Amino acid sequence: MRQTPVRLGIAGLGTVGIGVVKIVQRHADLLAARSGRPIEITAVCARDRSKNRDADLSGYAWEEDAVALARRDDVDVFVELMGGHEGAAKNALEAAIASGKDVVTANKALLAHHGQALALAAEEAGRVIRFEAAVAGGIPVIKTLTEGLAGNALRRVMGVMNGSCNYILTRMESAGLSYETVFEEARALGYLEADPNLDVGGIDAAHKLSLLASIAFGTQVSFDTVELEGIGRISIDDIRRAGDMGYKIKLLGVAQMTGRGLEQRMTPCLVPAESPLGQLQGGTNMVVLEGDSVGQIVLRGAGAGEGPTASAVMGDVMDIARGTRLPTFGTPATQLAAPTAARANAPAPFYLRLELFDKPGALAKVATVLGDAGVSISRMRQYGHEDTTAPVLIVTHKTTRDAIDHAIARLPATGVVDGDPVAIRIEEV
Amino acid sequence: MRQTPVRLGIAGLGTVGIGVVKIVQRHADLLAARSGRPIEITAVCARDRSKNRDADLSGYAWEEDAVALARRDDVDVFVELMGGHEGAAKNALEAAIASGKDVVTANKALLAHHGQALALAAEEAGRVIRFEAAVAGGIPVIKTLTEGLAGNALRRVMGVMNGSCNYILTRMESAGLSYETVFEEARALGYLEADPNLDVGGIDAAHKLSLLASIAFGTQVSFDTVELEGIGRISIDDIRRAGDMGYKIKLLGVAQMTGRGLEQRMTPCLVPAESPLGQLQGGTNMVVLEGDSVGQIVLRGAGAGEGPTASAVMGDVMDIARGTRLPTFGTPATQLAAPTAARANAPAPFYLRLELFDKPGALAKVATVLGDAGVSISRMRQYGHEDTTAPVLIVTHKTTRDAIDHAIARLPATGVVDGDPVAIRIEEV
What we know:
The structure is a homodimer.
Chain A: E1 6-11, H1 15-26, H2 28-35, E2 39-45, E3 61-63, H3 66-71, E4 77-80, H4 88-98, E5 102-105, H5 108-125, E6 129-130, H6 141-148, E7 154-160, H7 163-175, H8 179-188, H9 197-200, H10 203-217, E8 227-228, H11 236-244, E9 247-258, E10 261-272, E11 284-291, E12 295-302, H12 306-321, E13 350-357, H13 362-372, E14 377-382, E15 389-396, H14 401-410, E16 417-425
């Protein structure tokens, strides 16, 4: 007896869309054996039909319009791989839900901005939205967090989730090049989005973090309250100095529930060089999940690319084929708490780099300002003088961003510090 | 409207069983919000009722017999945490399936020996058997492999899945101690099973590997065909020498499908020191999954202990509560292929350590024997003489176990090699 097939409509035939087509074609038997049902593609759409694509699409109906695709009677699952957080993708996804289709999407921006409304709509219609491919490419982190760790109260979720930023930072270190040079290299290699600020500004990674935070802490997605800082101010000097102190610099996303509310940060951080996060090289992604029972789970894999992202899409498709049906963010959308956003102030050690003028008592003055602000010094290193100033590195004991900012604001008045001190949080991992 | 609860019967109240009780009690609201149904415990059983346990069990019915527990009308999910691959656990699990219960188990030995029969019985009865806790403790590796990577043809599955062995090997290295000394330390610390050969002989880890291989390659569980070698012959000398050549020694499980059939190995291997597997310290577990689309995914976490293992059990319970229903090994048991076992002979580089007598032309004779066996040398290092012999380390180019064995069998006849050469496979990771 032939089982009812699952019929996919794929909107968007870029790298990932074509990757999905290839898997469905190559592994028809394997997918059917594992899910108990044939997985078929019935219709596709993309902006430009005439474009030469690396797959045979002749067996599929072609739609000019994603909304029309989403509404087709012969589509059970609408696979949205168009991108963009407004306009066509949003309209099509809403049309799919309204037409009783399940949805698989890789669109982190759309869910970061409209996740709560879409999840409500899907649940009202009895449909599911799945988005494994939206976060950390091929790493099944949404599944791990939503399902595998469902017995845990989550404590903290962390991740290096933008491969381009990690490529830039590790390349700066290994080649001793400036940010600007490696940024241009990465752009020339096609590693950056058309708007590179999505990558180096941390926006893309912050989209992902906001989705993980919603699942982990049972709160409505709240992208707007992510504290955001890109990697543009990271100098090769800081990378080297941090290395001297045993750290690596990463664009690290951290979400944790504090007594003051949900804290979400996507900012450059120092992490111990010998930790799994510290050892992460190049474009690879890593997510660290901490639960009250499971302790720390680390997941590592390719964060982008045709194969890995298509693998994540297909994992979602297979779950739907097998009858797995969960709320979008793990908890029913009606029960997700409105997030109380906390300013990112959870205690942590900080790394400080100052340029100190060659004056008697200079270091004492700095130490006094720090002490008055309640910041105590764990480790300090002063380098030899370069012209009239000497670099000084300080690793503090645990303190708050507020205390650090307070101290930094008072340093100029000492008259012994040249330029702006650099302060970067050290995340304990 | 109160949803129908999921009622658990827990057989076995050791560390893990009590861990599960604690989670159900502590997180009642969280579990209900996430699954949409209350998770309740109705009945428990264990060998000794009078034993003092770290949880309040007064609200649960007590059964003397696990089979009676498995058959209770007020139990929906039978949670088997008794252990042992014959007898009570097997009888109770079979009784549970026959009585229409779903099963969650942490029993790797039982599934390694009887997985196929149990999966067939469960599918015939329309019930599910889930066993996340059986492999790599808190790491959701069964879920990742079965569901997250369901769109991939798997290429290779690897793992360090016995924390005690990894503790022993990394402790030998860091403290410079012999295997025997650290083995006794580990036993005194309670890190080893009552029968330590389950750990250091690789049996426990091989049970786990055979379960992963079944899911990955769609074959019936075949524990008997795992090539098995424990860590007892690993000397501190080899750990140091391997380190000199840039490697660490791990008890590494590897499963891969070859042209000759399914190859499953649980043996000491060298891995690059700077790889994620090479960097793994102490009792932590790591699993590496390689799929044709996803590339390489690395999962790391606690492989044992109350919290992590109970977390895995609860992940399975939550899936059942949410209505997720999959075949035991991902593919229906009736469609799993009878495994064609291949002798472990997939090409790899090897590490050789020889003690060479101080004779003219000694090294040339060794090189000739290797060359005649088709083994070519990639790197070689000779150390200074100790008494009458000098240690020689060789890293070969890719070759086969057969070729290495052939060469080693001919080395004594050269008259220049003292004692038995050591040969350890280098797994490329």
